[in-house]
Structures are given as C-alpha cells and as structure tokens.
Amino acid sequence: MDTTERSRELHLTVANEDYLECMVRIEQEDGAEAGVRSVDIATMLGVSKASVNKAVTALKAQGLVEQSHYGKVMLTPQGREIGSAVWYRHRLIRTFLVQELGVEFDRADAEACMMEHALSEDTMARWLSYLEQQGITVER
C-alpha cells in the first residue's frame, strides 16, 4: 500500500498531511531528529500553537507522532514515511512548475502545496520517470 492510500485509509486531512510534511521539513532543515518543537511547527505553518496542539493530538491518536507531556513532537516511522512522501511530491511538482512551465517560485511553491495531496504515488512515479527522461532531476 502506498502512502497516499495509507493517508486515505487513516482519513488524514490535507491539514494532517501538511503537519507531517512540516515536521519532516524541520527535521531535515534543522537536524531535529530528537523531536520538533510545537512553536517551530506553528511558525512554519503560520498557525497558532493551540492549532498545533490539536493537530498533534489527532496525529497521536492515529499513531503518526508521539509526544510526552509538553515535550517535543516525534514522528513515528509511519508518520515520517507519509510526511516524507508529501514533501517529495511537493518538491517534484514545484520543480516541474518552475523549470518546465516558468512559474514564479513562490507561486509554484504555493500551488504545489495544494496539488501534492491529490496525486497517488503511482502517478508521481510516472511523472518522475517522465521528468528524468527530460533531464530534470528532483532530490529524493
């Protein structure tokens, strides 16, 4: 089962996927493998800390994150897998929009954020294969 099917099976919302993606991005950018602070998630997504706490509670119930009382948020392996897949789709779509269609980066980034949730891994694999045939690479 691919991560898009798993997201649907878990009834993850677009917002849930955005939180997982955000945590993966913070981990990668800051080397925060010991967990991510709620305030950093709130800042990156432009939401309140209360919104982060509500989302973390929902993601904990689904086994996608762990958090001790007022501690850092830790992705579970399944949460990291889904978040990483969403972040990868985001980068692939953004790269295509910028390099192939000439869309301005900020607009491409915002539109990729909307599109990343709708495409299956199969479609993304086919798109990646096409891009590679065109000489375009996207870091995994």
TrEMBL record:
Keywords: Activator, Cytoplasm, DNA-binding, Manganese, Repressor, Transcription, Transcription regulation. Residues 12-76 form the HTH dtxR-type domain. InterPro entries: DtxR_MntR_Metal-Reg, Fe_dep_repressor, Fe_dep_repressor_sf, HTH_DTXR, Iron_dep_repressor, WH-like_DNA-bd_sf, WH_DNA-bd_sf. It is found in: Cytoplasm. The keyword Nucleotide-binding does not apply. PROSITE patterns: HTH_DTXR. The keyword DNA-binding applies. Pfam families: Fe_dep_repr_C, Fe_dep_repress. It comes from the Bacteria. Homodimer. This is Manganese transport regulator. It comes from Enorma phocaeensis.
